[in-house]
Design brief:
The chain is of the alpha/beta class and about 270 residues long. The chain is built from seven helices and ten strands. It has a five-stranded mixed β-barrel.
Length: about 270
């Protein structure tokens, strides 16, 4: 048997798919005709239940069932935005929700989550803006041609970095490693990718970037470091990580607003 490569069907990324996300939008609007996100500046995707609770407590908003998970439509400083969580972890779960959001009109997304560091210099609570994601996820190969990395939107990433800096929040910038096999991360991989300058390991960024590029929207990512793979210890909850996540969501919302103001989509 020949060695399998992803995707199994060559050139799949360029082929039309049978399911169309527009079907989702049509289904939602059949029971909620007002369902549209075209008038929203973007969405922040979050993955931790406590972070979702924090967002609800601080931003409120109207809950809808237009996509999988808890989608909150909020108004912040005169801008319409969305926060979505409660849909699960990993690139497949995030991509499914992102496709549904795009089908309803979202054109910008910032993904905010935790990551493990590949370097001891990054401690729990450190923030890292992902400038490209090593594609070890599987899903991204169904959206883009084979390549080592998936890339975020340069402009939205710039706005995200600026929003963090404006709040006096320190953040590193660098590559991430997106993997779908958290319990199969090995010392050989950590050493190899760390030597290439990769800063973090996460589960979603490459998938988010790939869907965004395939669909022609803007995406950016920021991680709060939760633990370390280079110097492994039993993981525990760090207050600094929680605080960093709160700052990241706030910066993500600000970045989406700024991007929409400077470069409104048609």
């Amino acid at each position: 048997m020949t060695r399998p490569v992803l995707p199994l069907h060559p050139g799949k990324h360029a082929l039309p798919a049978i399911p169309d996300p527009a079907e989702h939008a049509h289904h939602v609007r059949s029971r909620a005709p007002e369902a549209t996100l075209t008038d929203h500046d973007g969405a922040v995707l979050i993955y931790q239940d406590r972070l979702l609770a924090h967002a609800v407590a601080n931003y409120g908003g109207r809950r809808t069932d237009w996509v999988r998970g808890n989608l909150r439509l909020i108004e912040r400083r005169g801008r319409r935005l969305a926060v979505c969580g409660g849909f699960g972890l990993g690139a497949p779960a995030a991509a499914l929700v992102l496709e549904q959001l795009i089908s309803l009109g979202i054109r910008r997304v910032v993904t905010v989550g935790t990551a493990a560091s590949l370097h001891t210099s990054l401690v729990p609570g450190s923030l890292v803006v992902c400038t490209r994601a090593l594609r070890d996820d599987g899903l991204s190969y169904h959206y883009l041609p084979p390549a080592p990395y998936a890339e975020p939107s340069p402009e939205l990433t710039r706005h995200l970095v600026g929003a963090l800096a404006a709040r006096g929040t320190d953040a590193r910038q660098g590559s991430g490693w997106t993997t779908s096999a958290v319990y199969r991360e090995t010392a050989a991989e950590v050493s190899r990718y760390g030597s290439l300058g990769v800063l973090t390991a996460d589960m979603e960024a490459a998938g988010i970037f790939a869907v965004a590029e395939h669909r022609g929207i803007d995406a950016a990512a920021v991680f709060a470091v939760a633990d370390c793979l280079a110097e492994r210890r039993s993981r525990r909850d760090h207050p600094r990580t929680e605080t960093a996540l709160h700052a990241a969501v706030e910066a993500g919302l600000a970045a989406l607003s700024t991007a929409a103001h400077e470069q409104p989509h048609d």
